[in-house]
Automatic annotation (TrEMBL):
A Pfam match: CBM_56
Protein name: CBM56 domain-containing protein
UniProt keyword terms in alphabetical order: Signal
Domain CBM56: 29-123
InterPro entries: CBM56, GH29D-like_dom, Pectin_lyase_fold/virulence, SACTE_4363
């Protein structure tokens, strides 16, 4: 199945040293670094004929190369530095007094590599010194009451600039003139500056203010705000239908609703609903409020189709909608869920068949099912790819490029690539999503499912889902009018968060520091960081659960939208990992957003269960374009033993995924490379090859495994552009890939190899190049 409408719709679902030397020789470079943010450097002179060059990165680096000229009779040298306790060093010999050494660095930071400016050192003279980084007293931590914080630098005569909203300080930030008050939870960032010296690295201290003895009691029957519809089986079908139809008419139009701010949730209390038909539009969550799916029965339909004339019968833009935790007895015998990305179908009991394609049989680009039972046949037909986890199907029919199953009875056997189906008997580790329900007394609670290992079938197949529940009295309900400060106050007080539908602008980072915190959203609550802050930071703690959030990059660049764990985190969380589920990222489309990275995972054992990270290729005028919605990478994994189940990452401008952690596993990956690359010279990898791989495993990784991966190119702006390979991995026996493919959509550009140097060039005709296993 090809995607001939892609152009019309404009959517998108050792070597490093050699590389840096090649780039230098070619007059090219990696992205420029910000010295104040990333590192300190210095030169010392142990003898009259030698100097030692020192480089200390703020974030631990996999490698640092130094390039230098100025040694008499010797041309430019490119040297891999030696790491000692976080500082990289190289000794340069053959010098004499008066020689001027010109030097600069190439260093790795969370996957990409960066170049510094040039520095100079005169032998027998000296070089520019770096100002000592600021320190905080008291240091960051958890305190029962407000703190008065002193900031200082060991460099005499230095001035200090600081921020308290999570943003990176600059020379124009607030000048430190005396102790500052920290009355509530916040992160203080600071730099030190001195004329004639290199600005210090950024220092950071996070203060959590409050006893955290427990969340101040909230209501067990909260007001969920104006965008949540709660239906009761005692209501007439006509009343319910009128509300559903009103919401659908507001949310259905691909041209006007796709990038609008309207958000809504349809919640059905336990009971039976007859003749109810919920057509699900953009930013709409539909969910049952029972403890198990069968507690809510819809005798009718919950439907997604190619609803609009402008859709031309295809479902390629049916994003951002969901169905969860209910039983459906379809009126025509088959439920239809013809969706693209970011449209999960979870904890559903379909008492009939399930059609994942439009009624028109037009193209579709989904999709994700989990913890679901389908009594009849699940049919994908025109779906290009799909992932089904921990479910039970009557049968399966269909397969275009990449159909993947794990822990699903009724799934077809592995026959990739003909038909293109890959099946794992179990899911190695999984934990179903937290969800809202009503107990027998009419109070609201959030159920917290237990961790499963080697899972197969729905968690509720033998009765209730195993787990525990928490009362809504422990959840702060985030509604219109809440600010980053009020949300952080709730977190620091020990509350969980329940986000209601809406768009929330954040002028400071949301800091999640408490183990076992649950953050649950319904109706696609959208978090927009303002002024370049990072939207959310999760500490390296056990058991944080994030579900149902959309991070939408702000117009000032953020370094990351969501970070899990501090850099260098190494604690094991195997028994109680952090889970990131139905969490989506958008760069551009609605606004001209910018973010260097969307998701950074530093914590070990994290489960990434269904994300879509998307740099927009279409949307509101002025919100997308190569220099408009800039974004390097969708996902960076530094933590060990991280598992991704259902990974969708599209259109980022460098590596789409960078995986540096050991023991990583991915089950299902869908990717499109950026549509809008202007020319090849703008898009060559640091290694010197044409283009950036979609999925890069770090050179030092010795264990990694992945199943069912597809990467597509559609270089529409310049079809002469190519990518050397879609998957770049170390050649070692512990790094294994299964069932992977590349496709050139409408033959707009090419991918030369599938993985490393294996696999042929993508041909015309929008047909895949398949590799069954590697190595």
């Amino acid at each position: 199945m090809n995607r001939t409408l892609d152009k019309l719709r404009r959517r998108g679902p050792g070597l490093a040293l050699v590389a840096s030397a090649v780039l230098m020789a070619a007059g090219l470079s990696a992205p420029a670094a910000l010295a104040a943010d990333d590192y300190t450097q210095s030169v010392t002179q142990p003898s009259a004929s030698q100097v030692q060059i020192n480089f200390t990165p703020t974030t631990p680096a996999l490698y640092v190369d130094v390039h230098y000229t100025g040694v008499p009779g010797v041309g430019q040298q490119n040297v891999r530095m030696t790491n000692g306790s976080g500082t990289w060093r190289t000794t340069v010999n053959g010098l004499s007094s008066g020689n001027v050494l010109d030097y600069w660095f190439t260093y790795e930071k969370n996957g990409p590599q960066y170049d510094t400016p040039h520095f100079s050192y005169t032998v027998g003279g000296g070089s520019t010194t770096t100002v000592a980084a600021p320190t905080f007293s008291p240091p960051g931590g958890t305190y029962s009451s407000a703190q008065t914080v002193t900031i200082s630098s060991a460099t005499a005569g230095a001035t200090i600039r600081y921020t308290v909203d999570g943003s990176t300080p600059t020379a124009s930030s607030t000048l430190y003139s005396g102790p500052i008050s920290v009355p509530n939870s916040r992160t203080v960032n600071a730099i030190a500056l001195k004329s004639g010296s290199t600005t210090s690295p950024v220092s950071s201290a996070t203060y959590t203010i409050g006893t955290q003895a427990g969340c101040p009691t909230q209501s067990d029957t909260p007001n969920f705000g104006p965008n949540v519809r709660i239906f009761d089986p005692g209501m007439s079908a006509a009343t319910i239908q009128a509300q559903l139809d009103t919401d659908f008419n507001n949310q259905k139009d691909t041209l006007t609703a796709q990038m609008a701010d309207r958000r809504v949730a349809h919640l059905f209390k336990p009971g039976t609903y007859n003749n109810v038909h919920d057509n699900v539009g953009f930013y709409t969550s539909v969910a049952g409020l029972g403890q198990n799916p069968g507690d809510v029965l819809i005798n009718g339909d919950v439907t997604v189709d190619a609803f609009n004339a402008s859709d031309n019968g295809v479902a390629l833009q049916n994003f951002w909608r969901s169905a969860e935790n209910m039983a459906v007895n379809p009126s025509g015998g088959n439920e239809r869920w013809a969706v693209a990305q970011a449209a999960p179908f979870r904890r559903m009991d379909v008492r009939g068949g399930l059609q994942l394609y439009p009624a028109s049989y037009g193209f579709a680009s989904g999709g994700y099912i989990a913890d679901t039972k389908v009594a009849g046949q699940a049919a994908s037909v025109s779906q290009q790819q799909w992932y089904t986890r921990d479910s039970q199907l009557g049968s399966w029919n269909g397969g275009v490029w990449n159909m993947v199953f794990s822990g699903t009875s009724g799934a077809p056997a592995t026959t990739f690539p003909n038909p293109p189906e890959t099946t794992l008997a179990t899911t190695p580790v999984s934990r179903d999503v937290p969800y809202l329900y009503v107990d027998g007394t009419g109070k609201y609670r959030v159920f917290l499912p237990s961790l499963r290992t080697n899972a197969s079938g729905p968690s509720w197949a033998n009765g209730s889902t195993p787990g525990t529940s928490a009362p809504m009295s422990q959840f702060y309900v985030v509604k219109s009018g809440d600010t980053a400060a009020s949300i952080n106050n709730a977190l620091s007080a020990g509350c969980n968060l329940f986000f209601t539908p809406g768009v929330y602008h954040l002028n400071q980072t949301l800091n999640v520091t408490r183990a076992n915190t649950t953050i649950l959203g319904i109706g696609y609550p959208t978090l927009v960081p303002d002024n370049g802050v990072n939207a959310m930071q999760v500490s390296d703690v056990d058991g944080v659960r994030l579900k149902g959030l959309l991070f939408d990059a702000g117009t000032t660049n953020s370094q990351a939208l969501l970070t899990v764990g501090q850099s260098g985190s190494s604690a094991s969380h195997a028994g109680n990992p952090t889970t990131i589920q139905d969490v989506f990222f958008r760069i551009g489309g609605a606004i001209a957003g910018k973010a260097t990275n969307s998701l950074i995972v530093n914590s070990a054992n994290t489960i990434i269960d269904h994300i879509w990270a998307w740099r927009a290729d279409h949307g509101n005028a002025g919100t997308y374009g190569w220099t408009t919605n800039t974004a390097d990478t969708g996902l960076v994994v530094n933590g060990a033993n991280v598992l991704a189940t259902g990974l969708f990452v599209e259109h980022y401008q460098k590596y789409q995924v960078i995986w540096n952690g050991q023991g990583g596993r991915t089950i299902f990956f869908q990717n499109e490379m950026p549509y809008d690359v202007p020319d090849q010279a703008s898009w060559n990898a640091p290694s010197g090859v044409a283009g950036y791989a979609a999925y890069k495993v770090g050179a030092n990784v010795t264990s990694h495994e992945a199943w069912g991966l597809g990467s597509y190119c559609f270089f529409d702006t310049n079809p002469a552009v190519s990518s050397y390979h879609a998957f770049e991995v170390p050649n070692t026996s512990g790094v294994r890939f299964h069932s992977l493919l590349t496709v050139s959509l409408n033959y707009r550009g090419t991918i030369t190899h599938v993985i490393n140097d294996t696999g042929g060039t993508t041909p015309s005709g929008t047909v895949p190049v398949n590799v069954v296993s590697y190595p």
